[in-house]
Design brief:
Order of helices and strands: HHHHEHEHHEHHEHEEHHHHHEEHEEEHEE
Largest sheet: 6 strands, mixed
Strand order of the largest sheet: 3-2-1-4-5-13
Strand content: 15-25%
Number of helices: 17
Length: about 425
């Protein structure tokens, strides 16, 4: 078996066997297959695609290159959630405690942000002392005592995926649906949860702006999960505008806490409950959707989810005083108001543009090695449909470099479209694929 033959077969539209995919991955990891050959194969896959059987086999081969978490010893349902990335997406900070409060085990491997999308680890690390660098014993202990733990994927989990993703990032092959699906699902499968909900974002601020591509990705990930005996549901949600009002790390923690306290923006709570209800039904804790929604609303309204979040923060080394007293979280030295250029109604808030502005305040990374400013970001003061007057504050830039913030004011103002007439309501949840 030779890499050259496998590359040429895919170049010509052929279908790989499981053994050929295993050969490529193991050969690449042990140095027998060089970057240039793996790059050629990735481009062939990007151009020619993969069948469902190939994608499942690739996922299985990537999973086999590393370790996997074993959550089979828990008597309570084990659950996980994945988002394909968005702007202002702090759903995991609310959903995890809510699921733990209804009696599920939430063991989640999570990541950092890159580009215009935020990362859950970055948000949580804005809480002083909080760490996602836990041993397996610590992780297991928190799952048994708190019912929830979020950790970073260590080097032993799906190492082939890490190597392949780094190569895809520099060879313009990131956008392949089979490669995206196998990359996401090998990490979800390595996490060990039996029940998985996928929040597949679509729209301008999403990784895949096209709705049909988003549907295909969702369908393929469900097929992969089914082949491994996991119960998977996908929710397609809009990322045309940011989720909630806060975009940034400590800013998003504050907003997540507000939702856990029964306040905060309606869209964050609505999407949390929608995703959570799918897991409640998958796990058999409710017979129908309305009962699942009621169960989640009860733990949010009663404060049980908020208490679980406080336990979770303390369990992972965070200072729980900071989430009780939010003014103790990182605060920006500079705040700059962005005012409406006209009177009317907010017709659009461009999620991609807002995400890029937030990144440039210091809240995100252009490159993986960039440092994060936990206090930086954007706090929107309006949403789709809000009536505003000329000169009214519509957003506030937060950061520690006044000159940088001043340069972003016109860019952020341009991201918010104000027109006369009340706009038609936009749909947050587009469809659910079960």
């Amino acid at each position: 078996m030779r890499a050259l033959d496998i590359i040429s077969a895919k170049r010509d539209g052929g279908e790989h066997s499981a053994s050929e995919l295993e050969f490529m991955l193991t050969g690449y990891l042990d140095g027998q297959i060089p970057d240039y050959q793996m790059s050629a194969w990735l481009m062939a896959v990007y151009l020619r695609g993969m069948s469902d059987n190939e994608t499942v086999a690739l996922t299985r081969a990537m999973l086999a290159t590393g370790e996997a978490m074993d959550l089979s010893g828990f008597t309570r349902p084990t659950v996980d959630k994945h988002s394909t990335g968005g702007v202002g997406d702090k759903i995991s900070l609310v959903l995890g405690p809510a699921l733990a409060a209804v009696g599920m085990v939430v063991g989640k491997l999570t990541g950092r942000g890159l580009g215009h999308t935020g990362g859950t680890i970055d948000k949580l690390e804005s809480i002083p002392g909080f760490t996602t660098d836990l041993s397996r014993n610590q992780f297991d202990h928190l799952l048994r005592t708190v019912g929830m733990s979020l950790i970073g994927a260590g080097p032993g989990l799906a190492p082939a995926d890490k190597r392949l993703y780094a190569l895809r990032d520099v060879t313009a092959t990131v956008g392949s649906i089979p490669l995206i699906a196998s990359s996401i699902m090998c990490k979800k499968l390595a996490g060990g949860a039996e029940h998985i909900v996928l929040d597949v974002k679509t729209g301008r601020g999403a990784f895949l702006p096209d709705i049909e591509q988003s549907r295909e990705l969702a369908r393929l990930m469900i097929a992969i999960g089914k082949s491994f005996g996991r119960k998977v549901t996908a929710v397609l949600s809009s990322m045309d505008q940011p989720l909630g009002f806060a975009v940034g790390n400590s800013l998003e923690v504050k907003e997540a806490v507000a939702v856990l306290r029964g306040q905060g923006p309606a869209d964050v709570r609505d999407l949390t409950v929608t995703l959570g209800a799918e897991l409640v039904m998958l796990a058999g804790l409710a017979d129908h959707h309305a009962a699942a929604v009621q169960l989640l609303n009860e733990v949010l309204d009663s404060g049980k989810a908020w208490s679980k979040f406080s336990e979770f923060v303390a369990g992972q080394g965070g200072d729980s005083n900071t989430v009780e007293n939010l003014e103790l979280l990182p605060e920006a030295q500079c705040k700059l108001s962005v005012e409406a250029h006209d009177s009317g109604y907010v017709h659009d808030i461009d999620a991609l543009a807002v995400g890029h502005c937030a990144m440039l305040t210091g809240a995100g990374r252009e490159r993986k090695e960039d440092n994060i400013d936990y206090a930086a970001g954007i706090l929107l003061k309006c949403e789709h449909g809000t009536k505003v007057e000329k000169g009214q504050e519509i957003a506030t830039l937060h950061g520690n470099d006044l000159g940088k913030l001043e340069s972003l004011v016109p860019r952020l103002r341009a991201a918010i479209t104000i027109e006369s007439g009340i706009p038609a309501k936009k749909q947050l949840v587009i469809e659910t694929i079960r």
